[in-house]
User: Fold this.
Amino acid sequence: MSEASGLIRGLEGVIAAETQLCDLDGVSGRLAYRGYDIADLAREATFEDVAYLLWHGAPPTRAELGRQEAELIAARPIPDALIAAYRLFPKAVDPMRALQAGAAMLGMTDPDTADNSRAANLRKALRLTAQFATAICAHHRIRSGKEPVAPSKDLSHAGNFLYMLTGERPSPVNTKAFDASLTLYAEHELNASTFTTRVIAATLSDMHSAVAGGVAALKGTLHGGAGEAVMRTLMEVGEVARVDVFVDQALAAKRRLMGFGHRVYKAGDPRATILRGMAEQACRQSSQPKWYDIAVRLHEKVNAAKGLIPNVDFYSAPLFYSIGIPVDLFTPVIAAGRIAGWTANLIEQYDDNRLIRPRAEYVGPKRRPWVPLEKR
Ligand code: ACO
Assistant:
């Protein structure tokens, strides 16, 4: 097959599933979860609201939300075996690798691992969402030579994450910023990691296995790993006055600028617009305006020079940094939000499953006779 006969590199523009979860309009730069605009959700809803919306199709009533919050809190502790395993991991292990292993290990002890029914998958979606936060923070504490912080029984999902990371109860301002970030990352249609989870589930493998695969796909720098790379770029640039020279040199060297460009959004990523405002507020409040200022100049310069737009991972970098997230935890934090969307997609996939099995165009040698070893 050639382009003319159907090859589409990177599956660009291919419609590979129907979904009721995410309405992504790349032309006008609009995004909604189940019909609710992302800006309204980031401003008005909690991550718990959004997870419920994604899993169940409608926003929760007060009673439904209360029930789900209690279930999430009860599901926060992770098995002792996972904590023991994290103590055995090399200290330098990449937190995303630890999370991938964590997702697989959680599948070893989950009571519903092998049950792919809708009811079991809803229970697993909730448990995985609660446990991902605990696993990320426990691994981080252990690799930093500290004891894991036991999950809070009263803080919100976002507040508890920040608490388990530092051992200190977070400020309402940081909790709101983190909560809105989890919402903005929660779901994004058939991005590479969500597609990966669906491919795995479509073989009728289980939710934990699919999620472990999603973590692996998210890790790459062309996907979720871009946020960490953005922060390293901001640090490399160091000050606003150096931005222009940095960009000129980077473009001359044909260097890929992390946090810019998107396969679907061509006019602008609506999440980046929201995150920009949040980053400005957080950087100024934490007396680190420099990271926001460098980011804005970088945005202006790259856009003027190359026409590229910032994606979701661009302004989340200074935001996360200014609220105290270690740089190599940026991608796990994205996973902590995206787990709600991955699991919602998996429920959709299991509900209407068909094996995902595309074809490849063979471009290797023509058929030829096998030559025995002694004649080669
Ligand atoms: N820096 C420099 N040039 C870029 C960038 C960038 N960040 N993004 C795209 N381009 C250029 C390419 O060089 C290419 O130019 P050319 O046609 O002259 O060769 C053109 O724009 C098209 O780029 P592709 O890589 O073909 O676009 P694609 O849709 O495959 O890639 C992607 C999208 C991977 C996001 C790309 O823009 C990129 O690499 N961005 C940087 C990494 C990043 O920020 N990833 C996060 C994405 S959002 C998320 O997953 C959470």
